[in-house]
Structure prediction request, 229 residues.
Amino acid sequence: MDLPEHQPIGEHLRATAGALREAYRAALVAGREREAERAIREAIDAGLPETVIGGDIIAPAMREVGDRWAAGELSVADEHLATEVSTRVIALQREHFRVARRRASRRVLLTALEGERHVLGLEMAASVLLHAGYDVRLLGADLPLDELVVAVERHAPDVVGITVGRPATAMMLPVAVDLIHDVRAGTPIVIGGRAAEEVRSVGPGIARCLHVADAVETVDALVQRAELN
Prediction:
């Protein structure tokens, strides 16, 4: 079964969808739940649209299960299991795309303060947050405080992330936080980098992120907290 021509995906994604459609079909027919879920997660990670995952991977597999059940090749129990697995993965993909749409409406501004040139971790965090769906504005290293004010005014971020690699940079954070909040009161702030642990006072709406792998979870928590205020 070929993908519909109207789907807005390129040839590479079309081939990926075809391979994952076969993987999901085989897993579903065999009743291998984890493999079926893995195929859908891979489809999400590959960047396939929600309509393609639902209409061109899950639906054809379920039609085949129905046909095989009608032909006596699968039992009622097999059909019920396939239905439950597909119901679960549909919920999984819907939640993923719901979260992605929410993140896409949120802007994250990332930078290093003046004098700070160690930004590899910041660049990695930007990549992770972009992949998670956030609108990321990466300003890079050595940003003067007055330019930080200009950037916050211009980009109106929902979250500001600042990396501090040295104690001297960490000492500038209270001033930077005040400047950010003077422009956008209550804006959540994430502090990362090697010297983040040396920041003694972390108030409401300010969080440390000590590992790049925690960047999305940290920003998610700050955004959700802000939504409740």
